[in-house]
Design a protein that fits this description.
GO molecular function, one term: DNA binding
Number of helices: 9
Strand content: under 5%
Distance between the termini: 57 Å
Keywords: DNA-binding
Pfam families: TetR_N
Order of helices and strands: HHHHHHHHH
Protein name: TetR family transcriptional regulator
Radius of gyration: 19 Å
Organism: Hungatella effluvii
Largest sheet: none
Length: 192
């Protein structure tokens, strides 16, 4: 395997283990064993376990940024693309949630997901390139956080309540439109 594919394998394995067991409960030896690589190879690519975690999160945020900059989809269609991305990256969503809930420096790890949205909104808003704090508060607590929680709990919610994933997704999008969508409708009316 080429070095880049070994690095990718290490990151994929770390992401799976961090999501399953938690960052603190996962050791470098376990990552190496599960990836089938020597521990020294992990340290060749990453200075530390924290560096490995940061690489996993950076890869997620970079892909998320690409989705936000893809202008082919608009409105609810764009949200559907975003939700599909989160579902495909459910392990990263779990890592973001679990690490952000800890006290200490990792608490802000989830805010990294807000940065690309702030950047793109600033690019699109020529009359107000720096949105006010209330806007970002609303984006975070009525869109980003609920969407990440949705993908983290989707499977167990369906099992617990005996509903299909399709039904749950439909009900979630209805709730999303009524909350976050209503906020955007309000902003659109106010800005006219």
């Amino acid at each position: 395997m080429a070095r880049t594919s070994k690095k990718g394998l290490i990151m994929k394995t770390a992401k799976q283990l961090f999501a399953e067991k938690g960052y603190d409960a996962t050791g470098m030896e376990e990552i190496a064993s599960n990836a089938g690589v020597p521990k020294s190879l992990i340290y060749y690519h990453f200075k530390s376990k924290e560096d490995l975690l940061n690489a996993v999160i950076k890869e997620f945020v970079d892909e998320y940024n690409e989705i936000l900059h893809d202008s082919r989809a608009e409105g609810i269609e764009k949200i559907s693309v975003y939700m599909e991305f989160l579902k495909q990256n459910r392990d990263c969503a779990r890592i973001l949630m679990s690490e952000s809930l800890k006290n200490g420096s990792s608490q802000t790890i989830l805010y990294q997901v807000l940065a690309p949205l702030m950047e793109i909104d600033g690019e699109q808003s020529s009359d107000n390139p720096k949105m006010d704090h209330a806007h970002w508060l609303t984006e975070f607590f009525t869109s980003i956080l609920p969407s990440i929680l949705f993908v983290c709990y989707e499977e167990s919610w369906c099992d617990y309540f005996g509903i299909s994933a399709g039904q749950m997704e439909e009900e979630y999008f209805t709730a999303y439109r009524l909350t976050h969508g209503a906020y955007h409708e309000h902003i659109h009316k106010v800005s006219k």
